[in-house]
Amino acid sequence: MKPTVHDIARSAGVSLATVDRVLNARPGVREGTRVRVEEAIASLGYVRDVAAANLAKSRVYPFVFILPVNENPFMLGLRREVEEAIARSGTERTRIEVIDVPALESAALVAALDKVAAGDAAGVAFVAVDAPDVREAAGRVAAAGIPMVTLVSDLSQSPRDHYAGIDNIAAGRTAATLMGRFLGSRQGKIVPLAGSLMVRDHRERLDGFAEVMRQNFPHLALLPAVEGRDDPELVETLIGDVLRQHPDICGIYSLGAGNRGLLPVLEAKPLSPAPVVILHELTGLSSAALVDGTIDAVLNQDAGHEVRSAIRVLKAKADGLPVIAAQERIRIDIFLKDNLP
Amino acid sequence: MKPTVHDIARSAGVSLATVDRVLNARPGVREGTRVRVEEAIASLGYVRDVAAANLAKSRVYPFVFILPVNENPFMLGLRREVEEAIARSGTERTRIEVIDVPALESAALVAALDKVAAGDAAGVAFVAVDAPDVREAAGRVAAAGIPMVTLVSDLSQSPRDHYAGIDNIAAGRTAATLMGRFLGSRQGKIVPLAGSLMVRDHRERLDGFAEVMRQNFPHLALLPAVEGRDDPELVETLIGDVLRQHPDICGIYSLGAGNRGLLPVLEAKPLSPAPVVILHELTGLSSAALVDGTIDAVLNQDAGHEVRSAIRVLKAKADGLPVIAAQERIRIDIFLKDNLP
DNA sequence: AAAAAGCTGAGGTACGTAAATCAGATTTTT
DNA sequence: AAAAATCTGATTTACGTACCTCAGCTTTTT
Predict the structure, then answer these.
(1) Topology of A168-300 in CATH?
(2) What is the pLDDT of residue A25?
(3) Would you say domain A5-47 falls under CATH 3.30.980.10?
(4) Looking at chain A from residue 4 to 43, which residues have their Cβ under 8 Å from any Cβ of chain B?
(5) Cα-based distances in Å from B42 to A236, B2, B37
């Protein structure tokens, strides 16, 4: 039978109130008594029943999600997952507030973080912009003792408790290995298509990709990245230009959210031989392109997993509990046409 | 504020006991009263507080895991994950009993399932052997109203509530696509290495693999599968023989747990040109082989995810709650040397 | 018609914890 | 030395649900 506070009280020869004060680090217990209670806790192997405690406290976890306003499918999906989490709030004892901030602007993010630091949130998750002022704001959140998780995009050298997102350097490296292996002995140029290299995840993916290309596939020339701002029309124009300029392109790595511009180009005037195309983010579009052979592989991060993981971690941190590390590692999903969900 | 049973009682003009009887489908409520209460429940949007209910019931979920006694790394890992779940039992309100059965023998599995059907378990998870007698035993478990999840290996046409494992046909197809693409224009033979084709997962992986090879890579000849019974020494002998017999082997797909026999062969006398090697199951061995280039890709299923998912699903079924489908889908992890955990 | 048996509803207690209130002892202040 | 303030510990209530006991009413049995 699991020991309860009553068992501890009996074992230590004190009342429930005293046990409660020791457990919750409240004042009003003499040193000697405190030690006796702590010994009883240790020797009985007591662990707090979080469900009962939450019931007694009528606890809800007020969490804040700071999300960039961004039209790309991934961010829309992320937002949808947060909304599903909100729909589950009733049964999960959470209350999730979403703060919208303009994408890529650190000022608004800083303001949102400072609002959180001043409030009574039990935790905050945010898509980081990797800038010094954001780092400082994160420091203030941490100083306020509020658990903090970065989502999708990490904040380097910051006191965040956890990062719920993929390793983007590894993702880039993986894309490069797939690209190189799929091309085999073919010769030609590779063009990376990014949203903006000001975004940390895009830069990291490109770095990882470039490194492996240089190291393992030196016979393939890596062109400078095309920055399409994840804007379908701009991407369409830029990619069209590049393909005309370099008829010997044999590989395309779309590491951002520019698929809506890229795919029409590929389908409109198919190159011959077809280039190897690797994209990020599984959507209806990319999934269809995978099936019909327009593209070869999709790397994906599961927004639902990221959101649920962020909430689990925030809860655990708020309760001072450990997290199951293996469970919270967000994996890089690799989809070929054969293992689509 | 979330409505409680008190709100329902007040709204329907009845007592708590009546609400309780309606909620828990107990007898002793007049039809008209029952309808009034149900209307109140619906109109207030009441959802039972599972935590409070479990507290009141002092509920523990007695689950049974039926695991095959098997020395291979994957099964050992699965067992370890079940043990970690047992270690968390205290905080998760579970009590997990493990029943060991000899691997691949349906009789012992049937006996274990019948024991479960006769007992008071709140759910059972088992690694299925796909045989008619097992299917019948599963029927008896279902008839006893006990939630049932197949783990790692599914049972076709059975009344299991859920399958916590990967789509093995898709895994085989994925391996074939990787194999074919990695080989590019190379010609030669491909040899599949299985544990036993009596096991459903192995058979399915091979089927998926063979189909894609035949369809998309007809220039590569698929040799008959080598059945190594996941026995390192046997595998070493058999693979050695096959490689001698067919000097033009350019691809090896190890779809079972024979890696401990295969890898030494590959490392001892490296073929030239090196064959493309794709394995299942990420272990210390396969991970190292990936890093040093002996092998090219590893397909993996995460045993920890499978066990945790099985428990979540069993709990949900026991409580009559819905499951988050996307969360419970076990994915086929593809590891290259670049995205190792 | 009286007694027994069912039906329906009310009230109270328990689950494990948190937290407010209360009581007694000790120390400090006047 | 008396009064006030501070410590320390005990008791009690509440959280939302389950379930047990009991009371009043209706129906059936004798």
Answers:
(1) Rossmann fold (3.40.50)
(2) 81
(3) no
(4) none
(5) 51, 13, 9
